[in-house]
Amino acid sequence: MTKISGWGNYPIIETKEASFDRAKEVINLIKSKDSFIARGNARSYGDSALYSNTISSQRYNRMLAFNEDEGIFTCEAGVLFSEILDVVVPKGWFLPVTPGTKFITVGGAIASDIHGKNHHKEGSFSQHLMQFELACADGTVKTCSREENSDLFEATCGGMGLTGVILTATFKLKAIETAYINQTQTKAKNLDEIIDLFQQHEAVTYSMAWIDCLKGGKQFGRSILITGEHATKDELSQKQAKAPLHLPEKKKLNIPFNFPSFALNEFSIKAFNALYYAKNIRRVSSSVIPYEPFFYPLDAILNWNRMYGKKGFVQYQFVLPLETSKKGLTDILERIRKKGLGSFLAVLKLFGEQEDLISFPMKGFTLALDFPIKKGLFEFLDELDKVVVSYGGRIYLTKDARMDAKVFWETYPHIDKFVDIVKKYNPQGKFTSLQSQRLLIK
Amino acid sequence: MKSVLILGATSDVGKALAHEYAGNGYELYLGGRNTEDISPICNDLKIKHEVSATAYTFDAMKVETHDQLISSLPSFPDVVICVFGYLGDQEKAQENWDVANQIIETNYTGAASILERFAKSMEQNKSGSIVGISSVAGERGRQSNYFYGSAKAGFTAYLSGLRNRLFHSNVNVLTVKPGFIDTKMTEGMDLPKPLTASPQQVAKAIYKAERKGKATIYVLGMWRLIMYIIKSIPEFIFKRLKL
């Protein structure tokens, strides 16, 4: 038995972990084990990749084909985004969509149907996914795309591993001229201003904002909008232009142990936010920076999740429809501020349209907050859930470790169809996680 | 371009070695029982390192096919690495000689058979390098795995003899005794972390030692001490231990 958890270090459970590096081993595992959930690099936050039996895709990690002319990439499910970047960036290609960490597997990216800073323009990962192979509960391997086995394709993208084990995937990359991003940071004094800024910047490819959840009064919702485009060759400095597709080497920091849980409290977070906000003196500042700090600022600190101490944390990410976003955000931020349960990192982003079976995004604002586990937190989050539901929003399964089944069933509009497909292909509940049990997906 | 032949390429250490040598610009010949299992590894190596990598059928137990493997290679490899091994099940081996025989033939006979053929050519060419992955289990027979241990002991002795013979022909033979490695073979075992190397660590250590022309390495230094202690226990005590 091994102890495992998601990135939030909550909950921690014991599991019997098997791994595979060949498709036939997966089939054997499917035939031999009662139920299990596939697990990649364990970067989902909550309990979606936790169960008493897990099978790890980490050894199943070969790159199978890279068409350098057309930017089409095929690999096994355990390949990390970081490994793909190392190979494709020097050839002038980039991931079509990436979340805030590059240490996720391709299988996880599909199961979570991940989104990134470009969602409003380029959608989620599944929009760039051409096909994948899925090992199903009956021991067959099915090729799935929007045309072939389309029901399985739809239910697997964002389906949290409940339809089968993803084996290989083929997706489209995006052409880049340089490994750099032309970034602009813009200060917003308050919530109204940041919401307007997002809408003004909808034509820019990448955008997100850091928002200060603890500030009240006139500066309520003060934030920094960060937007960016892939830099062209002539935007680079002389030094950068020498090797436009190669990044300078950088050393990583590590947090080798859990911080004591009191390290992050209302005051230290307030201080951090004040410093972060003050760091940007000018209202608008632009610079050309390597893609790494732009997309993956936290990857520079390995194991940053340990900052939250042994008890772990919950990341709470919800989305609200555009019409209710402003009112809803004000309501929720106000509740958080009053509670003083502040979040070290609060990320705000405007999504574009998306109408998929079980994927999280919808047109509107999404906010992601970290809450260290402490007394009263779960009651408070239940209260927030009710508010999210009342504004017509929903919660991201990849971050979730505690949502009530009722909230889930009320807020994902195609849940019945999703569950029907899961039942059809996974009738015995072969693929089960703690999350799917909690949310009554069976 | 230099080339390396890795026998047992689908093992975790085999894969890590392939990446290590590919990263250093070697052309790769990968041998294993099932070329279908090797071909994704070849694709991976080609994409990541932009080197040529080809799969060849190799079965340690089928010694009659060993000459064929050598003739099917496009060029004579500069480095030959024997990384395959078969741990087997000691209890089953005690009950069924076929199992015992498979352990002995894979780890000793098969390995010696294929290396002997390469050794001959390298001796004539007066160049080349041979690496054999043996085991700390071969240092002293223990009741828990003496078939595996004795086969590896034989292999270690074979390698040391071969080293002695080929030294005069400018060919180095490296013996590797890795100790615990975090691989498929040891999955689910409760191994002490400080004594367990990752396949990548093993591969790096092997590449470095092979380039330097070393004779024998333990990947983690601690193992040298542990094996020294295990070897020093007097037999009248050792035979009573449950090891």
What does this structure look like?
The complex is a heterodimer of chains A (442) and B (243). Chain A is an alpha+beta fold. Chain A has 2 domains: 63-176, 2-Layer Sandwich (Uridine Diphospho-n-acetylenolpyruvylglucosamine Reductase, domain 3); 180-402, Alpha-Beta Plaits (2-Layer Sandwich), CATH 3.30.70. Helix content of chain A is 28%, strand content 25%. Chain A contains 14 helices and 21 strands. In chain A, the strands form 5 sheets. Chain A has an 8-stranded antiparallel sheet with strand order 16-12-14-13-19-20-18-21. In chain A, a hairpin with a 4-residue loop joins strand 5 (63-67) and strand 6 (72-76). The longest helix of chain A has 18 residues, at 322-339. The model of chain A has no long low-confidence stretch (mean pLDDT 92). Chain B is an alpha/beta fold. The model of chain B has no long low-confidence stretch (mean pLDDT 94). In chain B, strands 3-2-1-4-5-6-9 form a 7-stranded parallel sheet, with helices on both faces. In chain B, strands 7-8 form a two-stranded parallel ribbon. Chain B has a single domain (3-238), classed as 3-Layer(aba) Sandwich (Rossmann fold), CATH 3.40.50.720. In chain B, strand 5 (129-133), helix 6 and strand 6 form a beta-alpha-beta unit. The interface between A and B is medium-sized, with 16 and 12 residues.
